[in-house]
Amino acid sequence: MSATTGANPGIDDSHMRAICDEIGERLREMLRREQSGTLPARLQNLIAQLATADHEVAPSIAPSLDEMMSDIAQEPA
Fold first, then answer.
1. pTM higher than 0.70 for the full model?
2. Is 54:46 a contact under the CB 8 Å cutoff?
3. The domain containing residue 48 runs over which residues?
């Protein structure tokens, strides 16, 4: 999860997986209770935000070659 978002919440992998599993289970249960077949407005909004975020290009955390060369040039000899 943190690899795709760039976030580091300070939670180990096993706890992160357990949290994701619990969120998924609660979402499945909530959706099962829905009789009308439509999602609540709040959930529709969150899913739309997620779809939008999936299509956005995330900024790179790695420096560009120009930035690395600039840093090397500025280092004291």
1. no
2. no
3. 2-74
